[in-house]
Amino acid sequence: MWFRRGGRSGSVNTMGRRSSHTPEELRELILEASTELINEGGLASLSAREVARRIGYSPGTLYNVFENLDDLVLTIEGRLLDQLSAKLAQVKPSGSAHEHMLDMARVYLRFTHDHPRLWNLLFEHHLPANQNIPAWYQQKLDGLMAHVRAALAPVMPNADQDQIRRAASVLWAGVHGITSLSTADKLSTVTTDGANALVDDLVLTYMNGLSSKTGS
Fold first, then answer.
1. What's residue 22's pLDDT?
2. CB 19: neighbour CB atoms within 10 A?
3. Whether the predicted model's global pTM rises above the 0.85 cut
């Protein structure tokens, strides 16, 4: 996913708008236009030419701001991860650990339904085989899962960090599977039950199993 190269000159290559925006403003314009395109038609609708058309600059301008299309998409994904992390951080324990995890899973489900195409972007977009996920992106993923690990910890008092990390990954992968089928309108191929009921059942069954296993 590469922008067509327009050269990396010291000045922004624009269409009669060279002084219209600061670099920070231009970056924000590109991100907003790209996010709108993805919301409208998914990842397939994103192109440097269409983003440039919407913001009134030439396609080469985008290459001066972002290294390539992967860089742009990862930045959008990072913002989405930050938004979800902030939502999960707002879920404060108000009862048992089971209820806390239920509340978090429900917030996650609502978030994915509020941003279905953007959320699916995280799983549709693939970096080239020879390119690793940037460290800043991995930190965002780890920060997101830290909320889940913290909610699980009370029912795993004798577990080490690796055990808690694995339990959080297993549970959240299951919740994500339900939300993915639901946001893609494919849940009906598996069951007639709604996503909310399935997520509740999954979380409670898993949390009860952990409680029984640890005796908490």
1. 85
2. 7
3. no
